[in-house]
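User: Okay, second chain of the day. Same drill as before: sequence in, structure tokens out.
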Amino acid sequence: MLIGTVAEVTGVSTQAIRFYERRGLLRRADRQANGYRHYHDDTIDRLGFIRAAQASGLTLADIGSILTLRDADQSPCGEVNRLLADKLAEVRERQDQLARLEEELERLLAGSTRMDPTDCTGEQICQIITRQPPLEGRP
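Assistant: Same drill. Structure tokens below.
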């Protein structure tokens, strides 16, 4: 298949297909006599996997490690399970961070309703956001 056909069938741009090929996620396309790339039949399945893996939060490096295992005729399921568990842990940590941020924003907004803007001094910049003590090791 020519790259345009692959792009049309998969919804992946020709630029992305070339990029994935350069990154080693797709097998190098054979070149026809006219110089056009001719992609193997498995390209569509691999692109579908790449897109699904990205939608699951996996990086291209993660996806590359999975495809390397598959290309070596090894089952990548254990690696996929580990990567997804790591991604889930990252998502949960980020959710915790966002919950703490939400609480801080609610605290600041609640406090701001009791403040008079004319009370701000030049040193304070804005009394709603007060200077916090420096974090350990940071100015």
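The domain at 3-113 is CATH 1.10.1660.10 (Multidrug-efflux Transporter Regulator; Chain: A; Domain 2).

User: Thanks, on to the next one.
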